[in-house]
Amino acid sequence: MDRSAEFRRWKAQCLSKADLSRKGSVDEDVVELVQLLNGREQFFTTSSCAGRIILLDRGINGSEVQKQNCCWLLVTHKPCVKDDVIVALKKANGDAILKFEPLVLHVQCRQLQDAQILHSVAIDSGFRNSGITVGKRGKTMLAVRSTHGLEVPLTHKGKLMVTEEYINFLIKIANQKMEENKKRIERFYNCLQHALEKETISMTSYPKEKIKEKNNSSYTHKKKRNPEKACGKYITEENNKELENDDHDDPGISVTIFPEDY
Amino acid sequence: MDRSAEFRRWKAQCLSKADLSRKGSVDEDVVELVQLLNGREQFFTTSSCAGRIILLDRGINGSEVQKQNCCWLLVTHKPCVKDDVIVALKKANGDAILKFEPLVLHVQCRQLQDAQILHSVAIDSGFRNSGITVGKRGKTMLAVRSTHGLEVPLTHKGKLMVTEEYINFLIKIANQKMEENKKRIERFYNCLQHALEKETISMTSYPKEKIKEKNNSSYTHKKKRNPEKACGKYITEENNKELENDDHDDPGISVTIFPEDY
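^ inputs. structure came back:
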């Protein structure tokens, strides 16, 4: 079976299976994005989480980062209110941690070039920790990840270590991050649509050149990434500034600069 | 110029340049790993940070995530003590945040197969958010990233929002994460050495088969990832448990399962 046929078979199998998540369905905020991807022959999604605020309780006997003794006190994919967190915290008897986890999306791609396009769109939309995985038999996957997190210990052995005022302050920050994450998902959707349209036009107008380009494993995008230019109408100046911050590659990191167009 | 010659030229250029980081040198905890990678013809590192605890102050006028108004009150690549944080916090006049950032390493790879091997080693060593980037002209880079973070807001408009007791508690957690990060770096070093030795043996014993395999873009590793088996002597049971936790892919995510050996 050729690669394309094999990919189609896997896609059909994967999408026909039951959703095995605890929730049993795709999160509301990524439904459109998931549908856009699954509607294209070169992609299918294998897992997704739109982003969430969670309160975890880690058992006092277990290791600090041990999953077995970990209990979920609260999970929400919407902005949350202080009272819900306060009520949930009363159930903690170990080390409770409040986390904001941004979008995580795994997309299987027909070939490396498809993953490159999607990766480029993800980075331009603010999901800077995205990356490609290529399996031993060539299975190509893009993981879409943001750096936009929050992880705050709140109780120790069941004892609350912070004030209600602090929890209120923290929830505002978590909700802001949730809001920003939602904007990035919208930006991702719009940029992706734009990139796919552009690709379709190229394929129709210059099919031979496109095929030659594909064989060279080269996907042309701008030399200098500029999210505003990449899908201008969807990016505000404020968002653009925020994007710049999500970078561990600041002057604190040992770094050697090399030209971008290599 | 063929790809290999081009890669060698870039590697030589990159490694001969000055270290442009604020610190001006490679962090102590990754020196050996960086040397191991740069000593192999198929890799060179372009940036690295061993892991650090930082205290950032974000300006009150700026956006919460705006870099321009961001000031570093404290940076340490070693475990830190409460008093240093308390002293540094006194200088905060905006929204100060304590962060633990684990290892970040960018490695340029000669070809995709080299990135696949390195990616596999990174994942098996606990750096689960690692991923490959392939540029438009085929430049192949592996970003090594962990999920093992901490991000805690401490002041608002210069006002301390938590107690000294909480700061003490927090620093213990940050230092534990620093320690675990160091173990993972050691594990990465050992696993990498093991993988490279294995590769060299294969290349010497069965050069023809290896070349054929390489042309098929297939790199053989275990069906089921098991860090303990992957580089057994370096992994303790405790570490192994911790690895399992670093996963956003829990039942909370909408997910469809598909065989691993595709």
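Helices of chain B lie at 3-16, 31-38, 82-89, 112-124, 164-205, 207-215, 227-230, 237-245. The domain at 23-244 of chain B is CATH 3.30.1960.10 (SSo0622-like fold).
thumbs up if we can close this ticket
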